[in-house]
Amino acid sequence: MCVYPCTPLCPPVPSSCYPSMMAALWTLFWALSVCLLGCAGLTPPQAHNLPPSVGSNSSSSSGGGGLHVDAPMALRVFSLDYHHVQAPFEIVLWIMLASLAKLGFHWSGRVPAVVPESCVLIMVGLLVGGVIYGVRHSAPPTLSADSFFLFLLPPIVLDAGYFLPGRLFFENLGTILWYAVLGTFWNVLGIGLSLYGVCLLAPSSLGDISLLHCLLFSSLIAAVDPVAVLSVFQEMQVNDQLHILVFGESLLNDAVTVVLYKLFESFLRLPSVSGLDVLLGMCRVVVVGLGGLFLGLFFGLVAALTSRFTSRAQVIAPLFVFLYSYLSYLTSEMLHLSGITAIVTCAVTMKQYVEANVSERSNTSIQYFLKMWSSVSETLIFIFLGVSTIQDVHMWSWPFVCSTLLLCLFWRTTGVLLLTSVVNKLRRNAVTFRDQFIIAYGGLRGAICFSLVFLIDDFPKKKLFITTTIVVILFTVFVQGMTIKPLVELLDVKRKKKALPTVSEEIHTRLIDHLMAGMEDVVGYWGQHFWKDKFEQFNKKYLRRFLIREDQQAHSILRVYQELERRGQRGDAEASSVVDPRPPSRPLLPEEMDSIRRILSRNLQNFNKKQTRAYSRHSLHQDVATNRARKPLHRHQSVGGRYTCNTTAPQEDDERLSDSLRGRAGLSRSHTVCTRSSRRTLSDSLASTESQTQSQPENPKPEGVDQTSSDQQHPVEKTPKKQLSFNLENENQQ
Amino acid sequence: MGSRASTLLREEEIEEIKKETGFSHSQITRLYSRFTSLDKGENGALREDQVNFRGFMRTLAHFRPVEDNEKNKNVSNTEPLNSRTNKLHFAFQLYDLDRDDKISRDELLQVLRMMVGVNISDEQLGSIADRTIQEADANGDGCISFTEFMKVLEKVDVEQKMSIRFLH
User: Fold this and answer.
1) What's the ipTM?
2) Looking at CB atoms within 10 Å, which of A609, A633, A713, B6 has the fewest?
3) Which residues does the UniProt record annotate as the domain EF-hand (chain B) (predicted)?
4) Residue pair A378/A156 in contact by the 8 Å Cβ criterion
5) pLDDT tens-place string over residues B116-142
6) What is the pTM of this model?
7) How many separate helices (H) and strands (E) can be counted in chain A?
8) Are A700 and A629 within 8 A, CB to CB?
């Protein structure tokens, strides 16, 4: 692997490495596709759902195909029994294909800057699907709705929820809910009714589509898809507020979508629909949303409580996070509540307590696995979207398809404009016209609509619906996905601030928070700060005491501070010399080391005020002390000497990893790794506290990814400046 | 100046306050009733001889949201009380207890101590304070002046943070 210091805008790889890497990768990729073809050839052509829906695989029964041998006369030395392993084998091959495609995408030079990853994956899927179709002359395996909803969607949503920027989200919650609930209603009704009008206008071809069918269709096509939105928006670095609005809306509109879809579906089955049913339907929206919320809260709290006791079996602590979240999702699906809301709430709830309770390594594991699974899931979804497009079942109708497309765009735009004009009167920070345009334009549809359309009961025009859905999805992902980035630049939408937070900023911001809480109290205005304050008090008094281990309940600022110290120390480990060493009070026992690490790895979410920038799917903020800049200003001693060598190694690995990650200018996820240079100052300031002051102050690397795993979002609070020892006794007393 | 809270609010005073602070008529009357209710509580929070209504309003004026159209309307040379500079100055004065237009290390320490509580040792707090000063201090005098303070917070969206939506 070639590693080199990167700058944000230069091409990722030195040219000497490039051809060989690309060649290797593409060879592997095509070899794999050939493998898949081979497997496809082996299984007799059946239009069955892909093995991911485990258990539904019926092809293993067809032993006919050519590889069984008849009862052997003699002992065979070499035999091939494909059907024995067929299901898992094919699953693994698909996942491998997806991952290699992703790798190839990231290695492919200029492509990532222009084409979003989702588009490339869909194209790969189209290719593979086409090839399989050509070989077998029947439809390739499609994505079954069950496997999508039960296996592929939860990891993505869990990842989104776990790394949700808490403060931003709750500050904008009103607006987000406004868009999600009312906006979705507006879209569904608008599109449904207009489509019905179109059907009435073309009775010859579309006459048998009833109003309810139109409404059912519009309920699934109107909703913005979180997967698609996430994948496209991550590559654009728009300002945080805009991002959270679009993203939050796509997450929360699930409740409305689910309810409306099921409602219209059941209406279709009923002989007649009365007003009472409609009213009950409205109530169901509330029940579904709130039910999901409470379920998520419940499981989140239980998970937090469980994590309190994992100190003696730390290795399985990450498992609880996944188990409880998945359980909350499955339970709410079982009760026909909104699974997405449940899982997001669960993740948001349990996060701060789990991070406090669980060891640092477990935290890293949790985050890594989350990223990995959601990445794989998303890739698979897009590939299957491509593959499933190649089907026998298309039915085309120009008026229907085109009008659906146009209506989707039209209603979304008018909806956003209307809603924003109302909500701007109540917001502190108005949503500008440019932002509104991006919100409207960024309403991408994705795999959720696709799966939902397959679940419709069969009726004559179902194929038309499927075709239309595919067209809409492809249009939004390709056309809108590809053009939104240039549009953002053209319109000069406010971009993400790539600022390096400083200690001062943090302290002063915190002071302002306190100030505002006080002022709101004086004025008698129950604003955000007031409620935040109340929640924090409740949190401190009851929740934290109950859910977090006793020894971890130190004051948050102290923990932040110790966190910084620890970072400084880890940077210290790379240093060669110690200036002004102070004799350690006593050598640290391994348990103490562990407890130090645990305490220091606490992530501080005081007042939820930290800004998470970890939206991205691929960037995990590494626990890296990458920075080489040692400002020769300060000294720092660490009690207990260096951390052992094994912490150095991972640091360097991480550093290399983040280096190579950082190389992707304009690449989707890794870009946020680059811009996460806020950690620079953290490492800078900490490094400055290190003792290797003798080294010349090199310029810091342009992007220093220097965060601890558990600390995605906390700004530098305090850093020790002068001779300050990490005093174990001190901490023990506190 | 000089209207005591015990007397009713007179129209010309409302006008004066309006001009000075930029609040609307209804906001002023509403805040006045809030002021009197606070005062009656007599918990020492708002003693009449210490903070009269004008001062109260002037302080609150800092927290009005910044509106774009104000920039056009404001023909006078003085900045409105809720401009960014004035908001930052208000925050600055929270630190600057002795009013010498500089935040010294001790003042910073005091404020930090108040924010953090008793769980951090003096030593640690001291180094935090030192770090803060070192980041901001441009001219090396060991204190943070108002300009330096403004520079440090230039990336923070103060206009939005330090605003309360006053009800109309």
Assistant:
1) 0.84
2) B6
3) 83-118, 124-159
4) yes
5) 666 667 887 787 788 778 777 878 788
6) 0.67
7) 31, 0
8) yes
